[in-house]
Amino acid sequence: MDRKKDLAARRPTGSGTATHCPYCALQCGIKVQVGPAGPLVRPRPFPVNRGVLCPKGWAAAELLRHPDRLRTPLVREAKGAPLSPLPWPEALDRTAAAIRRIQLTYGRHSFGLFGGGGLTNEKVYLLGKFARVGLKTRSIDYNGRFCMSSAAVAMKRAFGLDRGLPFPIADISGAEVVVLVGANVSETMPPLEQYLKEQRSRGGSLIVIDPRRTSTACHADLHLPLRPGSDAALALGLLHLILAEDRVDWEFVAKRTVGFEEVRKQAIAFWPERAARLTGLSPSQLREVASLLGKAKTLLVLSGRGQEQQSESVGNLSAWINLCLALGKVGKPFCGFGSLTGQGNGQGGREHGQKADQLPGYRSLEAAEDRTHLCRFWGIAEEELPHSGPTAEPLLRSCGEAGGLQGLLVMGSNPAISAPKSLEVMERLRNLEFLVVSDFFLSETAALADVVLPAAQWAEEEGTMTNLEGRVILRERALAPPPGVWNDLEILHALAERLGWGEAFPAEAIQVFDELRRASAGGAADYSGISYPRLRQGEELFWPCPSPGHPGTPRPFLDQFATPDGKARFHPIQGLGPAETPDSAFPLWLTTGRLLVHYQSGTQTRRSPTLLRLESEPTVAIHPEMAKGLKIEAGDRVRVSTRRGFVRAVARISKGLRMDCLFLPFHWGGEGSANRVTNPVLDLESGMPEFKCCAARVERESEGCSNPEINPFEGKPENLRKNP
Ligand SMILES: Nc1nc2c(c(=O)[nH]1)N[C@H]1C(S)=C(S)[C@@H](COP(=O)(O)OP(=O)(O)OC[C@H]3O[C@@H](n4cnc5c(=O)[nH]c(N)nc54)[C@H](O)[C@@H]3O)O[C@H]1N2
Ligand SMILES: Nc1nc2c(c(=O)[nH]1)N[C@H]1C(S)=C(S)[C@@H](COP(=O)(O)OP(=O)(O)OC[C@H]3O[C@@H](n4cnc5c(=O)[nH]c(N)nc54)[C@H](O)[C@@H]3O)O[C@H]1N2
Ligand code: SF4
Ligand SMILES: [Mo]
Predict the structure, then answer these.
(1) Element (H or E) spanning 76, and its range?
(2) Can you give the pTM of this predicted structure?
(3) Which of 150, 450, 567, 651 is in the most buried spot, having the most CB atoms within 10 Å?
């Protein structure tokens, strides 16, 4: 009875603030209610998630009043000294002085910025402007380089526009065949499952292509457990069969595309037996898939990081785009190719100017007319506007090097965990003359900083995000940040003031949005018709939205593609397969990725008691046959080694992956940090590292049994919707 009363007293009153989840690119609609026991997240009906949340969304409010929260700036008096508190004015003075000193001593490009795909559009815009107009440095890139860069290159060159999904996710329900290539949506975007379920209940087929039998693959009609890194070979093999079975849509190819002949010739060399050998699948599996694809009236191919985080990933993506174009299944209702954007604002994060080569409105830093447009808009001389700088990996690699970065501001990323060669990245960040990090918590990156600035969280500030469909949403402020905490716009504004250009950097989100909107006018990602009032009225606005009366563009390719002649482009595949393959010393494939209850580098979700209870330490999944041969049992502490070093993890025995594969989540720091061992080789066109394939071995270290049971969500999708 007492407990009931207690619970009733702690229940929040009032309907709460309608806003959005802080994590992935679905940007599920939630409401935040504030009660005596603190803030709470509840689902709300929203066209994307339709009232469903995953465990991360449910648990998001646990971090708002978390004891680990940074509540005051921290500074280090000297290299090697501990971090100690300092009031805001002094911490900002120090930061501005360091920026000025470094730029004066080493040149303007020696100070860099590193942003994130979780930042609001307003922050991304202001950060890009801070670099180009304020500091006049070319040195800026962001963590989305490790996420969406290959999809961006492949989609831009095929369709003339990079919008992750050029159709609303509701189209999934109406497609006859859906193919997921290297995307484990049951764990990474669970509310999407509703659409897949609907699609199948209407008689559609789901094909999942993943070396692991993931919980997503468990619902599929067909699961192809291909060899890691063989995605392009698979798509070429399928195109060969489509040609052989005369399923090419020649009319579409003639009317709406350019360049098929070269791709056709290339596919001829991928006959079923050869493609089967390359992919580790059987010719009959390939024939079955080709026949489903060839006969389908409508088809959606959705790509995830599985095939995109590889050194030939632009090629992988192009191979699948070629296949969709040959079948005539792009730019029509319930048809298309899309890449599932990952971070909360992974889409908007790549449109407004924090990318190494980019200006707001998805304009190019190297196109003369784009440069002129922005220089006029910002009122600066063209010689002052820097050109493109290095992408994320070389940018981080240059830290502390002669001619490289001597100072860096990190906002919204934790590269000490998420960048390839993470141990070396940490060393390089330590070598910087000055590192300043804005974060909610002392992330592994913030722990290396000379100045740490405590930032407001998602529910404590307003701002817009652009979800995986190109839908712009408004995150409302639900509560005030803890005393002593500022938001990122206020931080940039205060630094700009100290550097002498404060009035050009407003601190109010709505003001920044208004500037962003106008800056984007006429660009590929045109937001000029979008406004806070329209979003507050519940309008569903997808960019481009070029005027206040414009309804937005959910399907941009229906009539034509965004290329100069309106036609899509085929691209032959240059390289095939990963840079490193298993050998006698490292006989297995190591792949890395995500678990349901943790998010990214873990700064946030490793602090959630609810989520940490479900997954409490680094694990590596091993096939039972392999484990038996290596005398490894569930719960054993094992060492996973590659040519670059080793990580320690707890063995999890899982039938759900190929026998020659290991799966290591990248959510952990310390000795369990996956990027100590992944292959840092990059895709030359996009700068994407090969997170998904390298050669490895696994050995037992000792017996110990702290978390032996298999992933509780594996193969049990019904668990996904429950409040944990
Ligand atoms: N729970 C959770 N959800 C998230 C995130 C998170 O950290 N946690 N992060 C968000 C972000 S930023 C992103 S980018 C998305 C990522 O979402 P996903 O792309 O779905 O996630 P991953 O686990 O990185 O990789 C997907 C799958 O690729 C498979 N794979 C590995 N190698 C290959 C290969 O060579 N070919 C193919 N075809 N598949 C392969 C892996 O087995 C894995 O199941 O998730 C978003 N949602
Ligand atoms: N091995 C391996 N490595 C990978 C991947 C993989 O699959 N395998 N995936 C890659 C992918 S797809 C991605 S997207 C990256 C993600 O890589 P990270 O950049 O490490 O991602 P997060 O953990 O989200 O880091 C965001 C950090 O910024 C903070 N933060 C969040 N929002 C804000 C904000 O609004 N303001 C401020 N100031 N701080 C904020 C968080 O607390 C956190 O510390 O990792 C990549 N690395
Ligand atoms: S799927 Fe989960 S993490 Fe992604 S937005 Fe929805 S509730 Fe948040
Ligand atoms: Mo991502």
Answers:
(1) strand 74-76
(2) 0.95
(3) 150
